[in-house]
Amino acid sequence: MTNEGRGQESIAGWVRGPGRRLVDFALRYYIQVLLATAVLVLSAVDPQFRTFSNYENILLQSSFPGIGAAGMTLLISAGAFDLSVAGVLGLCGILLAMLSSAGLGAVAPLVVMAIGAGLGLLNGLVVTRMKIPAFIATLGMMNAYLGLAFIVTKGQVLPISSEFLMGLGTQALFGLVPVPFLIMVALYVGCGAVLLRTLFGRQLRAIGSSPLAALTAGVPVNRVKVLCFVIVGACTALAGVLLTGELSSANAIMASGYELSAIAIVVVGGTSLKGGSGTLLGSFTGALFFSVINNALNMFGVGAYWQYVASGLLLISAVGVQAVHSLVRGEERASAQEA
Amino acid sequence: MDGAENSALPARKGGQARSLVTYLQLFESLGLLVLLAIVILMASAVTQGFFTYTNLTNTIINAAIVAVTGFGMTFAIASGGFDLSVGSVQAFTAIVAAALLQVAGIPTAILGALLAGVLCGSLNGLLVTRLRMPPFVATFGMMSVVRGLSLLVTSGQSVMITGRPGYALINNGKVFSLPVPLFIVLLVFAVLHLLLRHTPFGRHACAIGGNRKAAVASGIRIERTTILVFALVGLTTAVSGVMLSAQLLIVDGTLGTGFELQTIAIAVLGGTSLAGGGGNLFGTLLAALLLATISSALNILKVAAFYQYLYLGVLLVAALYLDTLRRDLIAESILRRR
After folding, report:
1. Could you tell me if B35 lies within 8 Å of chain A, comparing CB atoms?
2. Percentage of residues in chain B with pLDDT exceeding 70?
3. Above 90 in pLDDT, residue A75?
4. In this structure, what CATH number is given to the domain that contains residue A229?
């Protein structure tokens, strides 16, 4: 406690006047600054990086985890998590492949999104009705979904042949902006409007900052929470549809580690894990940032294993940055009292 | 079973609630025993060769590997946290042991693995205390980092343990025709039971899990205790990593996926509440045996491994639901008393 108190003084003493505002700006928009710096530096040093096809690839690769992260931002703002998204995504991808080979065509994505929303509803009910902490309930549900996905496919890869679905995952507007990225932009605008401009958004933020106060104020806590889980399920299913289209196949473990990517994007974007507020601009930037980092890691040939290390370290350091930020903004006292 | 002593209930008015908790813990342990007996009877009825010496020994060995880390996890849950990184740390320590065996003796390899486990655990503890991260996020991040490191140091390849008959004895050695892992798990159980019930450290850990504010107010050194608890989880995970590497004799960076789920599941199934405040190590041991028995029966019946994902997930959710019901029951009885 005393150490941290001293830290606060020294930071406050160190930054004064306009400098303080600059530090505040850098901390508030650190992810945007980071993204811009990373893109500029990489474009400057690596001719392979600054090609249109590579930029397009970065946009495409950011959209799969990014779409799931949009729903996750709302859920984390409401003070909960969903670790089952990898299972939901795998199961939805498989169902899409099965429905499309059954000849459902363009309706299949909508059906799959409805199923994803249903799985989200199940998660929400397990968390609210059975009163199990969200992270551990969804950890169990992830195994159940993964198990189902394996059982349905017997561990096989299911190919898809629908031109429409493959186009959904691979086509690009003007040959530069991939369709999944456009969908992601629309989704973020929609989720941002929901979070900031609707009663539901206010209610979920109220629940995130204090469930008890929200309950006392007459917010239907359980219903709002369940709805957040439903949104995460639908977003994840959408990501599953697009990813299946891009890969032109689906299998149970096509999204292993997806929960880490989605949560890391949200947290690195600046949404507080304590709940109560969320920044969709941050999550959007976070998705692009992770895509740039992974792209650069691939380009330098360090391979997939470093991506595990990078995601984990970024998640941990983002929470560290949040701690520093709250120190600077003098929220330290409040959280110290709480702890 | 004096677990109520460590629970978060108010001391003065908790008389009835305390006895209720004692009965519940007893009932849970008994309930698990009954369940275990039923599963064993069913397994021996529907399968051929369940009651063979080899199969029983294998079941005990598999249960022991999960139970050892389950004990550490029970400790962490009792102190109000938990550790999602155990699967990665298990892989990492197994790799450290295997790598050291190529250049050094068996004691050095085991010590090195244990040290690596303690380091990983302490790092978790430091992240939770110094950066004040929720244990969920800190260990989630570490899960990814350590998994990446394990894959990196092996370049995604397997590491063989060859020409070390002594090392394999950790797994297949017999004392009075009982497998060595049984003795390891009983030893770890005894040590952790002593730590949890009969030392200030164990009481402090439970106090932190039961009521953090009260623990701070009564002058418990929260940070030190929390770091020690996470170091203990790391240590027990390293023990299971050594046992696993001795069982497989070939290790790689993908070992232990889903291990965190198994260990949390057996702790909760064994009657340790996620609310924190107390741990039931004996229940954890029974739950580990139950899980291993079910897995072994499913293996004999040649049920595809996929189904085990499903049943583990459903089992975890069911165990957590029981935990919720129990907490409601206790809260109700306290209210009635007032």
Report:
1. no
2. 91
3. yes
4. 1.10.3470
* Residue in A150, A312, A316 closest to B306 by CB: A150
The answer to whether A132 contacts B156, with C-beta atoms less than 8 Å apart, is no
Q: What is the 3-state secondary structure (H, E, C) of chain A?
A: CHHHHHHHHHHHHHCCHHHHHHHHHHHHCHHHHHHHHHHHHHHHHCCCCCCHHHHHHHHHHHHHHHHHHHHHHHHHHCCCCCCCHHHHHHHHHHHHHHHHHCCCHHHHHHHHHHHHHHHHHHHHHHHHHCCCCHHHHHHHHHHHHHHHHHHHHCCCCEECCCHHHHHHHHCEECCCEEHHHHHHHHHHHHHHHHHHHCHHHHHHHHHHHCHHHHHHCCCCHHHHHHHHHHHHHHHHHHHHHHHHHHHCEECCCCCCCHHHHHHHHHHHCCCCCCCCCCCHHHHHHHHHHHHHHHHHHHHCCCCHHHHHHHHHHHHHHHHHHHHHHHHHCCCHHHHHHHC
- Can you give the residue range of the structural domain that contains B332? 3-337
Q: pLDDT tens digits, residue range B83-138? A: 889 999 999 999 999 988 888 888 888 999 999 999 999 999 998 888 777 888 88
Whether pTM exceeds 0.90: no
Q: What CATH number does the domain containing B254 carry?
A: 1.10.3470
- On whether any CB of chain A is under 8 Å from the CB of B133, the answer is yes
Number of separate domains in chain B: 1
Select the residue of A131, A148, A273 nearest B310 (Cβ to Cβ): A148
Question: Could B137 and A267 be called an inter-chain contact, meaning their C-beta atoms sit closer than 8 Å?
Answer: yes
Q: Is B314 on the interface with A (CB under 8 A)?
A: yes
Minimal-distance CA residue of chain B relative to A332: B132
A333 has pLDDT over 70: no
- For A141, name the nearest residue in chain B, comparing CA atoms only: B313
Domain count, chain A: 1
Domain assignment of residue A211, given as a range:
53-334
Contact across the interface for B148 and A260, Cβ inside 8 Å: no
| Chain A interface includes B300 (CB < 8 A) | no
In the stretch 201-220 of chain B, residues with CB closer than 8 A to chain A read 212, 216
B131 touching A (Cβ < 8 Å):
yes
